[in-house]
Amino acid sequence: METLVIGAGQAGLAVGYHLRRRGLPFVIVDEYERVGDVWRKRWDTLRLFTPRRYSGLPGMPFPGRASAYPTKDETASYFETYAREFGLAVRTGLKVERLSKIDGRFQAFCGEQVLSADNVVVATGAFHHPSVPAFAGGLDPGVVQLHSSEYRNRSQLRPGRVLVVGAGNSGAEIAMGLAGHHQIWLSGRDPGQEPTSASGTIVDRLLVPIMWLVATRLTVKTALGRKLRDHFIDPPRGIPLGRVRRKDIIAAGIERVGRTTGVRDGFPLLEDGRVLEASNVIWCTGYKPDFSWLELPLATTTHGFPIQDRGIVEAVPGLYFAGLLFQYTLSSALLGGVGRDAEYIVDHIADHIASKRCG
Fold first, then answer.
1. Are residues 101 and 13 in the same domain?
2. Cβ atoms of 321 and 122 closer than 8 Å
3. DSSP conformation class of 155
4. How far apart are CA 267 and CA 275, in angstroms?
5. For a tag on the chain, would you pick the N or C end, based on fewer CB atoms within 10 A?
6. Gap between the Cα atoms of 204 and 210, Å rounded
């Protein structure tokens, strides 16, 4: 095949859209059985952290009230509809376990199947392996432990107190969903909050477009854009709270506590020496990138992200990335921002194909 796109999330679908527009042959593969399953398998009350107005993929606005936040199931259905409406060739249930390059062509090993392609776009995003601190293994076996990727709803928890570790958007929203059913501690550094929550007030209507402009226009090609990137990535930290406000956390009766740094007597230990006798711990501590399955001469940053220029890997001609954190701007990993990166990549693929044909 000419181009293989690995991953049918927002990045892969956006790349497929632009490949289709250019009339370039491609196939998208995804490990899940159904387009959108990457969202369906998250916790029940999850919503996007951006409103519908800023959550549309290229060529199709996200349906519904512009200021409302889509649910995870609405997002999954939107992905499925998007792929169908634009005739994107997606082969589901096919996981690429290894990618190598032999005799100038990429070979994607998917179990017993091997797919060969001239170009490959890795659109698996930035979130791969759940990150849980090593000391978690020292908790008492009776304490229920779940990473946010495993958490669905409160039926998975024991009666008693819940410690949510990680105070970013995921941790705050899971804690809010449990408030009223359990005593909740929310542990971690305060990431701050956005100046508005896009709720439709006059202030929101004034500020949200400015915030989105910053997220989409402040690129890593500028000193200020690189400073913003480094602020969020080195060390890794969550973006400011969007929909949940600090006052909401207080009003819900959730107790804010410091960082969880270890274990004492089988229970979580805070940095101030306090021990929390929690019955449940939910780790909202993010993910680690994993590109070890790429058997290619690929250089990575100290945090494990591939070194690329707007998704193009100069060291491996024909290899591209889409949907990475700060690939070009803060919005590069978001539904509403990935389309521009996808178009840039596809333009490069088209030029690469044309030059090979001419050569």
1. yes
2. yes
3. G
4. 6
5. C
6. 10
